[in-house]
Write a structure and sequence with these properties.
With about 160 residues, this protein is of the alpha+beta class. The protein has three helices and eight strands, in the order ββαββββββαα. The chain has an eight-stranded antiparallel sheet with strand order 1-2-8-7-6-5-4-3, covered by helices on one side. The protein starts with a strand and ends with a helix.
Length: about 160
């Protein structure tokens, strides 16, 4: 199971998640930008995801739809502002069920000894209330499950 550390300072607009993934940086990065691979690990275990659009380049659009076991769908979308191979992804996020609450996410990928990767995701919300609302919805636990699923997928496809 990957090591995950979450930082959410009281009163701040941001949320930072650091996770050590037992796989090479290039593989971890590529799993984030491959529309065929992403559904195999993205999101918490109780949801599946459909990648409707994934244009991993500056100005490219993305849209993922999460599905639960009861037939409900939850769509998220945004725009890539930067996509540097095996280094950094910067993109916006918006839950389509609550339009107008956009966050900016920066994901970085750093080499660690023994072929592991430090994945760092910093999300900056428009307000403390938006950030705290996401925390209340269980984003931390869902994120831990997602990174565990990513590491398992990468181990299986070695």
């Amino acid at each position: 199971m990957p090591e995950v550390e979450v930082t959410a300072e009281p009163g701040a607009h941001d949320l930072t998640v650091e996770c050590v993934i037992n796989a090479a940086r290039e593989r971890v990065f590529n799993a984030h930008i491959d529309a065929d691979v992403l559904p195999r690990w993205w999101g918490p275990r109780f949801l599946t995801v459909t990648v409707e659009r994934l244009e991993a380049r500056k100005g490219g659009m993305w849209r993922f739809i999460h599905h639960d076991g009861e037939g409900n769908a939850y769509a998220f979308s945004g725009v890539f502002h930067e996509c540097l191979p095996a280094e950094r992804i910067i993109r916006t996020w918006e839950f389509e069920g609550m339009p107008g609450h956009v966050l900016l996410e920066t994901v970085t990928f750093e080499d660690l000894p023994d072929g592991r990767t430090l994945l760092r995701s910093q999300s900056v919300f428009q307000s403390v209330a938006d950030r705290d609302g996401m925390l209340a919805l269980g984003v931390v636990e869902g994120g831990k499950q997602m990174w565990e699923r990513l590491e398992q997928y990468l181990a299986q496809t070695g």
